[in-house]
Write a structure and sequence with these properties.
By secondary structure, the protein is α/β, with parallel strands linked by helices. Among the domains are: 90 residues, 2-Layer Sandwich (Uridine Diphospho-n-acetylenolpyruvylglucosamine Reductase, domain 2), CATH 3.30.43.10; 183 residues, Vanillyl-alcohol Oxidase, Chain A, domain 3; 122 residues, no CATH class; 128 residues; 106 residues. Helix content is 43%, strand content 12%. It has 44 helices and 24 strands. The model has no long low-confidence stretch (mean pLDDT 95). It binds flavin-adenine dinucleotide. The site of flavin-adenine dinucleotide has 37 residues, from strand 3, helix 5 and strand 10. The site of flavin-adenine dinucleotide (FAD) has 37 residues, from strand 3, helix 5 and strand 10. Its cofactor is FAD. Keywords: FAD, Flavoprotein, Iron, Iron-sulfur, Metal-binding, Oxidoreductase. One of its GO terms (molecular function) is D-lactate dehydrogenase (NAD+) activity. It comes from Mycolicibacterium agri.
C-alpha cells in the first residue's frame, strides 16, 4: 500500500536534507525501490534516507522520531517477514559499514551496523575466528539486521544465535538517548546511571521483577523461540542481558549504531557428513541421535529442492557426495585435526546405524566438494520459490520452529494440514534446532487465495503452539507473524510484549506495527495489486514464465543474493556502486513497480526504470547465479526496445554506433585504415556516444571471411566431418587471427571447416541496445542462410561467447515463432565443447594460464568443456572468481559507463592479470574481456584457440 503519512513528509524531508550529509529521497524511484524486502509485503516508504556515517545515522533516527514519523532501519533488506518496510526507511548498509576493530586476544570485533556478515568473516578468518551466527543470507545480511532479527545460522547448534554472540550494543533511542547496553551487568549499578539510561534500567528491572513468573512460563523455552521479544534474557540466570533482549526486537526498541561481538575460534578441521533418507520425516526422527554427538551443523534439504538446481549443479552435488535418498541432512563435525573430525563423524554414523536409522551416508572432506553441497542449502530459499512444474511458491509460513525432539511430529502434522488445504511446498532448514523453512504454493494473487492463506497460517500456528513451538524460528515476526503472537503467547504474554515496547519506545516511533500493534497479516500483500494483470505485449517470449512478462517480474522475491559484496558474477554494478538501484533486485523490483503503476507511473516510458537499467552490464550473471534466475539482461533489452519505440531520436548515440556495429563493420572493412584513423578521434567518439577514455578497437586489414575465401584448400583429410564456424562480427572484423587459429585447430582435429554461404549475424548488438525488431530481422535472415547447415546436421561452432550464447538461448526466445531458431540453439556448440566431444588429443601446451571466463559463457554456455580441454592440453589454468570483466560489449564503451566498467574490472580481473608472471598466458575468449585487459593492463589476452594453435606450430 502507499503509506498515508500522519506527519508532514515533505517538511521532514527538507529538515533531514539540511541536517544530514547523506541522501534523503522522496522521489518515486527511491520510494519504489525500498517498498519491499524479502517478504510478501509491500509498503511504500514516505522517504528513504541513506546516512553518510554513524553520526548521520543517529541524527536521521532522532529527527525522524521527533517528527512523529515511523523509523524503519534497514540493512540488506533480506527480511522475509516484512520486518524492514514502511515509514521512513533509513538504510545503514551503504555507508555505515566499517569494521572498527578485530581484537584477536579477547576474540571480539567492533562493527558498524551496515557491515555484511561475509565481510566480517573474511576479516576474522585469517585469525582463525568467525562470528558464530551464520544465516544463509550472510553474503548480504548486515550485522544491524542480524542483531535486530536475532539471526541464526547453520552453526547455531554449536555456536548459538546472534544474541548469544553479542557483547555490547551502542544504541540510540527514539528520544535521542545514546547509550551502551551489554550482555551482562550489575543491576543496581545500571539502575543508578543518570538520566534516561538509568530510568530505562529501572523500568526494565521493575518489569522483570513484576513478571518473572509469566516470563519463565512463556519465554525462552527453547533456543529457536525467536517470536516476540527475548524477555527471558533479563532473568538473573541470564545475567541481566539487555543486549540480548535487544536482539530480536526487530528495530522496535532502538537503532543499533555499533556492536561489540564475540568471535568464535574456528575448528581446525571439519568434515561434512551427508546423510540420505527416504523422506524428511525420517530424517527428522534422527535429530536427537545426531545431536548427542555435538555436530557443528545439522541442516536439511530435500529432493524437491535438489531437483530444482541447475543440471550441472545437481550433477556436481552428486559427484561431491550427495548419497541416495529423497531428503538429506548436512551434518558437519569438527575436530582438532582431520583425523579427530572424521572419528567424530564415524562415531555418529555408528550410533545412527545402531539406532536402526535407514540413513545412507557419505563423508566429504574436500572443501571444494563441501562448498558444492552447501550451495544446495544456501540457495534453497530462492529455489523453493518455484515448484518443479514452474508454479509459484511463497514464504509466509516459512520459519516455524519446534523443540527438535518434536520436529517429526510437526512435519507429520504439517503434511496433514497441507494436504487438507491442497497445498504443497519445498522445505529445508535447521533441523538440529527444530526450525523448518519452506515455500508453499499459496495463491497470493487473488483475495480468495489470500483468505485461504490466512486460514492455513492460523491452523499451522495452532499446530506449532500445541507442540510447544514458535511461529518464527529465526526470521522474526514482521508483518507475517506479529498478529499470531496472541495465539502463541496468550493475552498475558502479549501484554508483556506491549509493556516492553512502551519502556523503550513510548512514542511508538521505532518500526511500528511489528511485534506489537500489528496490522493484519493479510494486509499489504504485494502481489494482490494490478501488476499481475498487466498483460504486456513483449518481443521476447518468456517460456519459463508462461510467456508472461508480469510473471517473470514476480521471480524476484527479494532474497538479495545479488547484493553479495564479494565473489560471483552477479551483480557487477552492485558490487561497484553498492546502490540498491544498481542491484538485480532493485532493477527487478522497479520493473515490477512499473507494472504496478501507482508509484512508477509512466510504464515503458519510465525514466526511473531506464536509469536503474542503465548500469546493468547485461552480463547475464543473474540468469545463472540468482537462485530464481532473474534475467535482467533480457528484461533490459525488452524495456529498452519499448522505451524508445517510436522515438529513435531519443536513443543514446551509442545505440547507433555500437548497436549497428555489424553493419558499420561491413562498411569499415572496405577501407579499414581510413576508418581506424577517424574512429579514434574525439569528434568521432562524441558522435558515437563512446567514452572518451576508451580506445576504439581497430578494424583488421583483412576480415576473417575474406581470408577464408582466398586461402588454399586444406590438404589435411577431414575425418570427423564438416562444422560450420560462426563468423561473428568481432572475430570477423576486429580479431580475424582468432578465426584463423580456430580453423587451424579444428582442421588439426580432423574437421572440415565451412563458413555460411552469406553474411550472418546473431543480432547481439541490437539485442543489447534494445533494438529488438532489427535483431529479429537479422536473426531471421541468418536462419535462412543456415538452412542447408541445419539440414546437413552440421554443428555450429561459436568462438565469441556472447554471440554463441545468443545462438544458444536469446535468438530462440526472440524468434520464438520459427522452429529453426530452436534448431540453431540445439546445433550450437562452443569451440571447447566440440573438441571435447571428439576423442582428439590436443597438443601439449604445457603452460600456466590465467583464464577469464566470459560472463555469458558462465551464465548460458557453461565452462566445464573449456576446463577439460585446457587440462587435456596441459594448460595449468587459474580461473579466478573474477565475474564479468566490466566491459561487457557496448556497456563499457558507452559514455558515462567508464568508471563503473573500470571499477568492475579492478575488482579481481585486472589486478590478477597485472600480478601474473610474464610467462603465464592470459586467456580470454570474449572480445570484451580481451579489450578490457588490453585497456587496463600491459598484457594482451589470447583466445583459447590461439593458444592451442600456437602449440600446433600454426602461424595465424
Ligand atoms: C535467502 C534467505 C536466507 C535466509 N537465511 C536465514 C538464516 O539462515 N538465518 C536467519 O536467521 N535468517 C535468515 N534469513 C533472514 C534474514 O536474512 C536475516 O534476518 C538477516 O539477518 C537480515 O539482515 P538484513 O541486513 O537484511 O536486515 P534487514 O532485513 O534490512 O532488517 C532486519 C530488521 O533489522 C532492523 N534493523 C536493521 N538495521 C538496524 C539497526 N541498525 N538498528 C536497529 N534495527 C535495525 C530492521 O528494521 C528490520 O526489522 C534469510 C533470508 C533470506 C532472503
Amino acid at each position: 500500500m502507499l503509506t498515508r503519512a500522519t506527519y508532514d513528509a515533505n517538511r521532514l524531508g527538507k529538515e533531514l536534507g539540511s541536517a544530514l550529509r547523506g541522501s534523503v529521497c522522496g522521489d518515486p524511484a527511491s520510494r519504489a525501490l525500498y517498498a519491499v524486502d524479502g517478504s510478501n509485503y509491500r509498503v511504500v516508504p514516505d522517504l528513504v534516507v541513506v546516512p553518510a556515517d554513524v553520526d548521520d545515522l543517529a541524527a536521521a533516527v532522532a529527527l525522524t522520531a521527533a517528527a512523529g514519523a515511523p523509523v524503519t532501519l534497514r540493512g540488506g533488506g533480506t527480511s522475509m517477514a516484512g520486518n524492514a518496510i514502511g515509514g521512513v526507511v533509513i538504510d545503514a548498509s551503504r555507508h555505515v559499514n566499517r569494521i572498527l576493530d578485530i581484537d584477536t586476544e579477547n576474540r571480539t570485533a567492533i562493527v558498524e551496523p551496515g557491515v555484511v556478515l561475509t565481510d566480517l568473516l573474511a576479516a576474522a578468518r585469517p585469525h582463525g575466528l568467525a562470528f558464530g551466527a551464520d544465516p544463509s543470507s550472510g553474503s548480504r545480511a548486515t550485522l544491524g539486521g542480524m542483531i535486530a532479527n536475532n539471526a541464526c545460522g547453520a552453526h547455531s547448534v554449536a555456536w548459538g544465535t546472534t544474541a548469544d554472540n553479542v557483547r555490547a550494543l551502542d544504541v540510540l533511542l527514539a528520544d535521542g538517548t545514546r547509550c551502551t547496553v551489554e550482555s551482562s551487568g550489575v543491576r543496581d549499578d545500571l539502575a543508578k546511571r543518570p538520566g534516561r539510561e538509568g530510568e530505562l534500567h529501572r523500568a526494565l528491572q521493575s518489569f522483570v521483577d513484576a513478571n518473572e513468573l509469566v516470563i519463565r512460563r512463556r519465554f525462552g523455552l527453547f533456543t529457536r523461540q525467536i517470536s516476540g521479544y527475548a524477555l527471558h534474557r533479563l532473568l538473573p540466570e541470564q545475567g541481566y542481558n539487555v543486549a540480548g533482549l535487544l536482539c530480536g526486537s526487530e528495530g522496535g526498541f532502538a537503532a543499533t549504531l555499533r556492536a561489540t561481538l564475540a568471535l568464535t575460534p574456528l575448528p581446525a578441521a571439519r568434515v561434512l557428513c551427508v546423510l540420505g533418507f527416504p523422506d524428511s520425516i525420517t530424517s527428522a526422527e534422527c535429530v536427537s541421535a545426531v545431536l548427542a554427538h555435538h555436530p557443528l551443523t545439522m541442516e536439511s534439504i530435500n529432493v524437491d529442492l535438489v531437483d530444482r538446481l541447475p543440471g550441472e549443479v545437481r550433477r556436481a552435488a552428486v559427484d561431491a557426495g550427495l548419497p541416495d535418498g529423497r531428503a538429506w541432512l548436512l551434518v558437519e563435525m569438527g575436530g582438532e585435526d582431520s583425523v579427530a573430525a572424521e572419528r567424530s563423524a564415524q562415531e555418529m554414523l555408528a550410533a545412527l546405524r545402531d539406532s536402526g536409522s535407514p540413513a545412507t551416508a557419505s563423508l566429504v572432506t574436500d572443501p571444494g566438494a563441501q562448498a558444492v553441497l552447501w550451495r544446495c542449502r544456501t540457495d534453497a530459499a530462492g529455489l523453493a520459490t518455484r515448484r518443479a512444474d514452474g508454479a509459484e511458491a511463497w514464504g509466509g509460513w516459512e520459519d516455524a520452529a519446534v523443540p527438535p525432539e518434536r520436529l517429526a511430529d510437526y512435519l507429520r502434522g504439517l503434511d496433514d494440514l497441507m494436504g487438507r488445504y491442497g497445498l504443497s511446498g519445498a522445505s529445508y532448514g535447521h533441523f538440529g534446532e527444530g526450525c523448518m523453512h519452506m515455500r508453499i504454493d499459496f495463491d497470493l494473487l487473488t483475495p480468495q487465495g489470500v483468505a485461504a492463506y490466512r486460514s492455513f497460517v492460523e491452523d499451522a500456528t495452532d499446530l506449532v503452539v500445541e507442540l510447544g513451538g514458535s511461529v518464527s524460528g529465526e526470521h522474526g515476526d514482521g508483518r507475517a507473524r506479529s498478529e499470531l503472537l496472541g495465539r502463541m503467547y496468550g493475552s498475558d504474554g502479549l501484554d508483556l510484549l506491549a509493556q516492553m515496547k512502551r519502556i523503550w519506545d513510548p512514542g511508538k516511533a521505532m518500526n511500528p506495527g511489528v511485534v506489537v500493534d500489528p496490522p493484519p497479516l493479510d494486509a499489504d500483500i504485494r502481489h494482490l495489486g494490478p501488476a499481475k494483470d498487466r498483460k504486456l505485449l513483449t518481443l521476447f517470449s518468456y517460456p519459463d514464465d508462461n510467456d508472461d512478462f508480469a510473471q517473470a517480474q514476480r521471480r524476484c522475491v527479494g532474497i538479495g543474493k545479488c547484493r553479495q559484496t564479494r565473489g560471483g558474477v552477479m551483480c557487477p554494478s552492485y558490487q561497484a556502486t553498492r546502490e540498491e538501484m544498481h542491484s538485480t533486485r532493485g532493477r527487478a523490483h522497479l520493473l515490477w513497480e512499473m507494472l504496478q503503476g501507482d508509484v512508477i507511473t509512466d510504464g515503458w516510458r519510465s525514466t526511473e526504470v531506464r536509469d536503474a537499467l542503465d548500469l546493468c552490464l547485461s552480463c547475464k550473471g543473474c540468469l545463472s547465479d540468482c537462485p530464481v534466475n532473474v534475467d535482467i539482461a533480457t528484461y533490459k533489452a525488452e524495456f529498452t526496445h519499448h522505451h524508445y519505440a517510436g522515438r529513435p531520436w531519443a536513443r543514446p548515440l551509442s545505440h547507433w554506433s555500437m548497436g549497428w556495429l555489424p553493419q558499420l563493420s561491413r562498411i569499415a572493412a572496405k577501407a579499414p585504415r581510413v576508418v581506424n584513423r577517424m574512429a579514434g578521434t574525439a569528434v568521432a567518439k562524441r558522435l558515437g556516444g563512446i567514452a572518451p577514455e576508451r580506445e576504439v578497437p581497430a578494424f583488421a586489414e583483412e576480415t576473417f571471411t575474406s581470408w577464408f575465401a582466398r586461402r588454399p584448400a586444406p590438404t589435411r583429410p577431414d575425418t570427423r566431418g564438416a562444422v560450420l564456424l560462426w563468423p561473428d562480427s568481432f572475430t570477423n572484423y576486429l580479431a580475424p587471427q582468432i578465426g584463423r587459429a580456430a580453423v587451424a585447430v579444428l582442421e588439426a582435429a580432423g574437421y572440415r571447416v565451412v563458413l555460411p554461404d552469406g553474411p550472418v549475424c546473431c543480432g547481439l548488438t541490437w539485442i543489447s541496445t534494445g533494438q529488438l525488431r532489427t535483431a529479429k530481422r537479422r536473426i531471421r535472415r541468418s536462419l535462412k542462410t543456415l538452412q542447408p547447415v541445419l539440414d546437413a546436421g552440421m554443428p555450429i561452432v561459436g568462438l565469441e561467447p556472447s554471440c554463441t550464447a545468443v545462438l544458444r538461448r536469446d535468438a530462440a526466445e526472440l524468434v520464438h515463432d520459427d522452429a529453426m531458431a530452436a534448431a540453431v540453439a540445439e546445433s550450437t556448440v562452443t569451440f571447447a565443447e566440440l573438441l571435447m566431444r571428439s576423442d582428439w588429443t590436443p597438443p601439449d601446451v604445457g603452460a600456466d594460464a590465467l583464464v577469464q571466463t566470459h560472463c555469458h559463457q558462465h551464465a548460458v554456455l557453461g565452462f566445464d568443456a573449456d576446463r577439460a580441454l585446457m587440462a587435456k592440453a596441459g594448460i595449468r589454468a587459474d580461473v579466478p572468481d573474477s565475474g564479468c570483466c566490466g566491459l561487457a560489449g557496448n556497456f563499457g564503451f558507452e559514455r558515462g559507463h567508464y568508471e563503473v566498467s573500470r571499477a568492475v574490472g579492478e575488482r579481481v580481473l585486472l589486478p590478477a592479470v597485472r600480478a601474473a608472471e610474464p610467462s603465464t598466458a592470459i586467456v580470454a575468449d570474449g572480445f570484451s574481456c580481451r579489450t578490457q585487459i588490453a585497456h587496463g593492463t600491459p598484457r594482451q589476452a589470447l583466445h583459447l584457440a590461439e593458444l592451442l594453435a600456437s602449440a600446433l606450430g600454426e602461424q595465424t
